[in-house]
Amino acid sequence: MKIITTIAEARDCVRASRRDGKRIGLVPTMGALHAGHGALIERAVAECDFVVVSLFVNPTQFAPTEDLARYPRTFEQDKAYCEKLGADVIFAPAAGEMYPQEQITWVTVEKLTDKLCGASRPGHFRGVTTVCAKLFNITTPDVAYFGQKDAQQAVVIRRMIADLNLPLEIRVCPIVREPDGLAMSSRNRYLSPDERQRAVCLHHALEHSRQRAAEGCRDAATLISEMQAIIENARGRIDYINIVDTETLESIARIGQPCLVALAVHIGSTRLIDNCILDLK
Amino acid sequence: MKIITTIAEARDCVRASRRDGKRIGLVPTMGALHAGHGALIERAVAECDFVVVSLFVNPTQFAPTEDLARYPRTFEQDKAYCEKLGADVIFAPAAGEMYPQEQITWVTVEKLTDKLCGASRPGHFRGVTTVCAKLFNITTPDVAYFGQKDAQQAVVIRRMIADLNLPLEIRVCPIVREPDGLAMSSRNRYLSPDERQRAVCLHHALEHSRQRAAEGCRDAATLISEMQAIIENARGRIDYINIVDTETLESIARIGQPCLVALAVHIGSTRLIDNCILDLK
Fold it and tell me: CATH topology of A2-173 equal to that of A186-274?
């Protein structure tokens, strides 16, 4: 496995693979890899001939008040993990390689980005779409792999690919969970032991909504308020809980079509997100 | 020469060329081709192995008040001209092929687009950068050719390519002029015979500034006011006349470094632009 830090090297090595007719897969990550990322890399290795894992903590998707500085960096472990899973290349550029001058060009996706996480993290998705466009242009993948845990991100990137005619497909892979149900996240390591126990409330709230819907409850407001009680009972501070259309991300009032139940909750000072899809067919 | 109207066909034919190791050139146009476009196509044919000319009157770069509906469409002549010059493919999609659903993803370049033409045509450059990103992603050129007449557009696209790491180079080709000096433009055909005669005032004003600078005048305000007099004398209605840095497009007060003298003028109801570079070295 090769470790690459410059854009020029990345272009060279994908050019060579492309010339050999290889199918290129990209797994864009911010490092601090866990089994959720692992599932993306495994799927990429299974489906592609040449797999690039990018490790880049992208400054433009963090607000000044957010956790850019303390975001976990675990390069040596990430390297060993990628190697074990069969990735071909790690692309780990420094911030100055990705942003050598002031970034004045932005890719923005309207409408889908002003709700859910976009409402509480202004500018976040502009940073995500812009860095993904850059990574796609540098590594020219046939397929890029994203996790369903970042459900809104997946919807936004999918739309960006369609609207800009980017020549790649996207695969969105299921959420990977800890044994107690907590969704894997690089930010879970911020949690104290007590917070770690309470953090499972996000999963419990989602499971409750799934069960209540299966029992026949169709009213979104009822489900949301019951989820709210579960979160508050675990002393979680709710950023949002919403039930939305899986494509437009617009709130829905009655559970009918497949919908996304999504929530963001602060456990102590750590913001966690989780979601599930309700499909009653 | 092939005529292609769908994105799928365009992808197929550039994929085949790329597999054969060909160098792909793209000349993005809105059709109504003239000798200025011709120079771009000739250069592309000279430098590349496979040349795509796109003909697409892009609705997203026109404001509702502008001339989208009456913009000249001369497809049969354009076709014959491209064929004569040796283009390999014309890509002429309908608006519904390029924008099959509401476009909510936009590529924007800040700062460079709020001046000169950007100030009088809000949204124009967002439409230009977005459609160019789409055309680049569809035709995956190694080189794209633009005309220096749209000087601001060239600066904006160059910056977009750098900021988004788009895998292509840009070539900017000199302005082609009519025998009396009027810059070639698809919009020249809107001019009445009287307006056509008066339209040469843009070129005269630029030549005047070039001569005055060569004689030693270094004061931008003086040059601008003398150019203004020349335009007004020909009953042109000035949108802007400015002298700016060739990269940042910021106004400059004294002619020192290479600078861009740019103007936009209404002759009757037709808006014309022209420019020259002053480099006193």
Answer: no
CATH number of A2-173: 3.40.50.620
Half-sphere exposure of B148 (CA within 13 A, CB side): 15
| Structure tokens belonging to residue A111 | 């409408």
Nearest to B138 among A110, A140, A165 (CB): A165
Residue of A nearest to B99 (CA): A163
pLDDT score recorded for residue B257: 85
Which residue ranges in chain A fall short of pLDDT 70? 281
Question: Is residue A239 a contact partner of residue A265, using CB atoms and an 8 Å limit?
Answer: yes
CATH architecture of A186-274: 2-Layer Sandwich (3.30)
- Residues 190 through 219 of chain A touching chain B, CB cutoff 8 Å: none
What value of ipTM does the predicted structure carry? Answer: 0.97
Pairing of strands A24-29, A105-109: unpaired
| pLDDT of amino acid A175 | 98
pTM over 0.95: yes
- Give one word for B58, left, alpha or beta, with left for phi > 0 and alpha for psi -120 to 50: beta
Q: What are the b/e assignments for A239-270, b being 16+ CB within 10 Å?
A: bebbbbeeeebeebeebeeebbbbbbbebbeb
B interface mutation test: which of A103, A163, A249 has the most B CBs within 10 A?
A: A163
* A80 interface with B at CB cutoff 8 Å: no
**Nearest CB neighbour to B164, from listed A110, A137, A140:** A137
Q: Which residues contact B103 (CB under 8 A, 6 or more apart)?
A: A163, B60, B130
CA dist., res. B130 & res. A187, Å (int): 35
Q: How far apart are CA B37 and CA B191, in angstroms?
A: 19
- Residue spans of the domains in chain A: they are 2-173, 186-274
Q: Tell me whether B108 touches chain A (CB under 8 Å).
A: yes
Question: Which CATH entry fits the domain spanning B186-275: 3.40.190.10, 3.40.50.720, 3.30.200.20, 3.30.1300.10?
Answer: 3.30.1300.10
Per-residue pLDDT of chain B (281 residues; tens, 9 = 90+): 999 999 999 999 999 999 889 999 999 999 999 999 999 999 999 999 999 999 999 999 999 999 999 999 999 999 999 999 999 999 999 999 999 999 999 999 999 999 999 999 999 999 999 999 999 999 999 999 999 999 999 999 999 999 999 999 999 999 999 999 999 999 999 999 999 999 999 999 999 999 999 999 999 999 999 999 999 999 999 999 999 999 999 999 999 889 999 999 999 999 999 999 998 86
Touching check for A266 and chain B: CB below 8 Å?
no
Q: What residue of A is the nearest CA neighbor of B167?
A: A137
- Is A53 in contact with A4 (CB distance < 8 Å)? no
pLDDT given for residue A280 in this prediction? 80
User: Does A112 lie at the interface with B, CB-CB under 8 angstroms?
Assistant: yes
